[in-house]
Amino acid sequence: VQILEMSHDLAGELNLEVLLTRIMRATTELLSADRSTLFLLDRATGELWSRVAEGIATKEIRIPADAGIAGAAFSSGRTENVSDPYSDQRFNRTVDRETGYKTESILCMPIFNKQGKRIGVTQVLNKHGGAFTGKDEGRLGAFNAQIAVALENAQLFEDVLREKNYNDSILKSTSNGIFTLDLDDRVLTANDAVFKIL
Question: Which residue has the higher pLDDT, 7 or 159?
């Protein structure tokens, strides 16, 4: 029920920045953990990046897509449930050293889009009251499926908005008058030059 409520809450959010923050807050709450981070794949650089990292000041984190425990989960496509990160050679202690935070347990799970391609990783830290369980893995898996849909919608909206802004800037900068008509010859759109010419 909690997953459905959270999924419904996220479904209407199209601003990627806001969506990432809300996803992390919901994931942390869902799994009774200290914090969580959503890493997305940057296909251009081959890195996993995050705009939001709960609990630390850094607004963007970038790591190679195969680095650390998050990278291992992304690369293999399998869940990584680590109850003692400091004994795991893949664990990067740098963030803990710099922030004074102590990571005691990690649950990392890849996120797949509807075509089955990996698009990111959800990383959850420090389960309250012990290590992450199989039940937590099931919850995160169900929530990740909803996260993938919300992310794709937000990214599509961001792409459309970027394209619209690009087209608008071209129309504003041209000195030619450009307008569109509907089937009844009524003006639907017109750039600034049309008004100057008329």
Answer: 159
